[in-house]
Amino acid sequence: MSIPQRIFSSSERSMSPTNTLAGEPSHPHPHSHESSVEKGIQAYTNGEPDLLPEEQKGSVSLSLKKLTGNGAMLIVVFWAVACWMYGTLYRSEDHAYKLNVIVADFDQGPVGAALLSAIASVNGIKTYPTFHIVAANSTSPEQLQHRTFTGEFWGSYWAAEGASAAFEAALESDSVAASYNPANAWWYSGLEVRYATIWQGFLLSSFETIQASAAQVFANNTVVPYLSSLNATLGVNQARVLSGPVSASFLNLAPLEFGARVVLNTVAFVFPCLAQFFFILGLNGIFGMEGLYDRLNFRQHLKLRVPIELIWTLTTGLSIVAWGFVFDEGFRIKAKNFFAMWAVGWVNNMIFFDFLDIIFTWVPLPFAPPIVVSFIILAVSSSLYPITVCNNFFRIHYAFPPHATWETMITIWGNGAANKLYYDLPVLAFWLVAGKIGWVLALRARANRIKSHNQ
User: Which of 22, 105, 227, 280 to pair with 36, CA 20 to 30 A apart?
Assistant: First the structure.
């Protein structure tokens, strides 16, 4: 059986033994035909690196150096973006005092005094919202709700007018006590649509704590003295009133009552980034394989790429908005609000598309994924929590498109609630225009680079 012919390097040929009698290369033993390179690699893997040829040593050493540099870069990038995201949430409860709540006592009696006393006991504590008490004669419950709805305050709390008089009337007559509703004593309002996690974690829990504290104050200051001086027999309804004299009711000015709401400003902002990332990878790969970059000039490429981007971002924008409605658990929204949300999602997706396409133009492919990961983390971080309860450093999020996108969607979901469009829309417009300009320049640079390479 003939031995397969191998291709030797010039150095290997010079070292090969020759048959001086025949003038032809001698045939080595069948088990010794391995080249010195193969033997060296085998020795290296067996823990004998000194036997690796010098040229292979250099190649392995260079590869390890590059791998080490790449790993170090990834560690730095992931540490940076992780610190950014965790920093957004770091000790956020200590910033709860930045959440402003407006308070008024329309009762001007024991019920209102109990509420103000409970609020005074927590006002100034950094883990509670800051309560701003206004004079009852300068406002109304409707004005308190309006100022909460517009986003000027995160919530409102008030003692209802005539609450103390209604309680006293219930104690005078058992028939009046039958219609007495303790939940009409105090009222608080807020916007569930405005960062549902903040509403539940900071505001709602604080309001419920104040309600329990105010009820205890009212019981100690009013109910106990009344029972101590009571000489008459109480009716059944009057006894019921004394056992639970006061409570509070909640007015949800902008509800968002479905389970998927917790991902609307978190995971939902990852999908647009990933959709544009993978689509651009496929787009560039297909165009490259088909030779379109070589055959099309800048103007032709632009005419082809613009409709592709518009159609794709319209589709992804619609998909991302539609997912919220598919799993809305019966929550209803007006048709005009749906299309408004689609438009905002479309703009957000175009900004992402342009940014990533610019990255792929100027950044070598091996370095693009870390930048994309950083971009995704920053996008989610800026929409995850309201800037109000973050460290002042993160006010930079005001300039980020995802933050402006989410706040605009809050206004749409809430039918005009927490309206900051006067700021959010200019931010989105700036990024859209800047992205388009950068995108066109990147396409031109790519076309010029390919043209010069072909020449």
Answer: 22
Q: What's the maximum distance between 2 C-alpha atoms anywhere in the chain? A: 137
> Which span out of 43-57, 69-83, 256-270 was modeled with the highest average pLDDT?
69-83
Per-residue tokens: 388: 């109000």
Task: Determine the 3-state secondary structure of 395 from DSSP.
Answer: helix
pLDDT (tens digit per residue) in 250-277 = 999 998 877 777 788 888 889 999 999 9
Helix (H, G, I), strand (E, B) or coil at 189: strand
| Cβ(186)–Cβ(249) below 8 Å | yes
| Pairing relationship of beta strands 130-134 and 100-105 according to DSSP bridges | parallel
With 0-12 / 13-18 / 19 or more C-beta atoms within 10 angstroms meaning exposed / middle / buried, residue 224 is exposed
Q: Are 215 and 144 in contact (CB under 8 A)?
A: no
**CA dist., res. 281 & res. 284, Å (int):** 5
Mean pLDDT over all residues of the chain? 84
Residue written as token pair 């700021």: 423
* CB under 8 A, 24+ apart: contacts of 409-414: 409/264, 409/341, 409/344, 410/193, 410/194, 410/195, 412/337, 412/340, 412/341, 412/344, 413/193, 413/254, 413/256, 413/333, 413/337, 413/341, 414/191, 414/193, 414/194, 414/253, 414/254, 414/256
- Cα–Cα distances in angstroms (integers) from residue 258 to residues 231, 263, 266, 292, in the given order: 52, 11, 15, 47
For residues 169 and 109, give the distance between their C-alpha atoms in angstroms, rounded to a whole number.
14
For residue 52, the model assigns a pLDDT of 52
Whether 309 shows a pLDDT value over 60: the answer reads yes
How far is it, in rounded angstroms, from Cα 389 to Cα 198? 9
